[in-house]
Amino acid sequence: MPYYSVGQSGNHWSRNFNEESSLISGAVVGGDARAASIFYNPAGISEIEQSNLSVNASLFSFDIFNASNAWGNDIEFFTTRFVVVPRFVSYMLKPQKKRNWSLEFAFLNNENYQLEDFSSVDKEMDILSSNPGKDRYNAFYSYNNKYRDDWIGVGGAYKINPDLYFGISMFASFRTLSYSYMVDIEAGPLNYSSYTPDDSYYTAQYKEQEFVKFNNYRLLWKLGLIYKLENVSLGINISTPSVGLYSDGKRAARKKSQSNIYDPTTNMRVTDYLIADFAEKQDITSAYKSPLSIALGATWKNHDQTRVVYSTIEYFAGIKPYRMVDAQENYEIINGDPLIVGLYDEWLSFVWGAKPILNAAFGYRWTKNKITTVMGGIRTDFNYRKGLDYHPLLESRTLKSFRLNKYHFNGGITTKVKGQDLMAGIQYTFGIDQNQKQFVNLNEAIEYNADNGTALQGVKQNNMDAVLHSISIYFGATFNFSRKEN
Asked: Average per-residue pLDDT in the chain?
């Protein structure tokens, strides 16, 4: 369950590309991005001296994620995952007849996010006002969120003069989202065997389900400059907002129902309802937006270039809340009950958006000798959905997710073997989110809450605290192809 994410995890800087730039936490906008130049600053493609192939061998990632009180007080969301993910392949071409030009072709995985949980609550409690004594309270709940974003790109750079480089790259983005959420609650008398056919036996029920899935194809561009002084180089990279091309595999569903619920304060039966709708293909529209971003970087080298300090900041513009998934509801409301009408608003909409975010990264490189180089880095990765105001859209129509601020710590070495560069490194990620509203409160449940119209559950508290610990070990290689000058 690598939290590279983004998009759907709500973070812009969770990525790694498994070559040298990752060991210095991506603080390479000012130069030395090497194979990752096509992404961080395409002007850096001009820094290559010979054609090369860069391959990520594999990424081993082990993650521990815990969200206390997610499903109710003292009912946690807990999962661990071990995964192997190949993530980056690049070919950099240095034309022999036009030495001021450099080209690069790359495939990279920009995000690969997966989080899931499934469990139940089964206990005895006095919850039904129509049945004196204890009842059986049973609830199943599940959560599954998978998001993947793969990029294919081409880039070129031109050396304007020995000190100034310009570059541009274009990417096609292939995004896939699959999300589902379910809570199914029942409460009924404990002793079933005591009932006869003439008895009025029933269970109280509440159910809530959400599902959305789509593939989205987009284009975006990056423009970069690098200016080099004697011991310092400065860089700027501008990433355009993405442009939508096409969506397919579109499906969305939402269902909510309740039956046999009594309001204990009035002893009156509450309206039974079933609201369910499903849309797919041409009946649904889907879109995904990525923001304009501007990154600035600086690289400082000592006199013999054995020690290098890197820094990068990147500003991501906000995205006004929008309907990521939208469909015309087909269900006809036949009951004018205000409760039903209110629940039905934007029934098949799933909304998204982003706050402006500023992230920073710092890296350090020490060339120990001609063979071995040691590197390390740190970067912030703030969540762009934390505290976002969705008005005039409904925040209740967002995908349920966690809004972690993350901090990434990287380190590793590169070594030369017969003219080829081999790399090994490690990353530790710590993520935290506090005082988020619970998904549902399956503890402290009451039969009906007239204030918010919920049944068989407690009032949602702002006491869900989420923590992520992630260790990633990765390997990579760059194969250099020397050519004779014409």
From this structure: 88
